[in-house]
Design brief:
The chain has strands at residues 2-5, 14-18, 24-28, 35-42, 66-75, 84-91, 98-106, 114-115. With 116 residues, it is mainly beta. The strands form 2 sheets. Strands 1-2-3-8 form a 4-stranded antiparallel β-sheet, with no helix packed on it. The two termini are 14 Å apart.
């Protein structure tokens, strides 16, 4: 799994997740007014406590992971105001499952799409 982000270009708010099978998820996190869009990888699904202890762990070696093409889940918004979250399962032989979460927290007016 490779994460492609650009910090200092016209594509600065775009992120693409590409696995060894060329399966990808693309997401635009550009903020409009009253919203917060982003992503994180966790070893738990529905991990929106944001305590940070299990999110984007630097010990996650994503290289051997690929997307589980049979798994996609809408995660209840919980404390995300009018927003929502989706999760994709990342799998690798002999390793624990990980979950890529895309979220958007907003006031009911804004939304973000993703491409798979």
């Amino acid at each position: 799994m490779e994460i492609l982000e650009k910090d200092k270009s016209s594509w600065h708010s775009k992120v693409n997740f590409v696995d060894a099978n060329d399966v990808f998820v693309g997401y635009d996190t550009e903020q409009d007014c009253c919203e917060d869009a982003g992503w994180f990888i966790s070893d738990r699904i529905r991990a929106y406590s944001y305590d940070g202890s299990h999110l984007n762990n630097p010990n996650f070696d994503l290289a051997p992971y690929v997307f589980d093409a049979q798994f996609f889940e809408h995660v209840p918004s919980g404390d995300l105001d009018e927003g929502g979250m989706v999760a994709f399962k990342l799998i690798s032989d002999g390793k624990p499952d990980l979950y890529l979460h895309l979220y958007n927290c907003h006031n009911g007016y804004y939304g973000h799409g993703f491409e798979v």
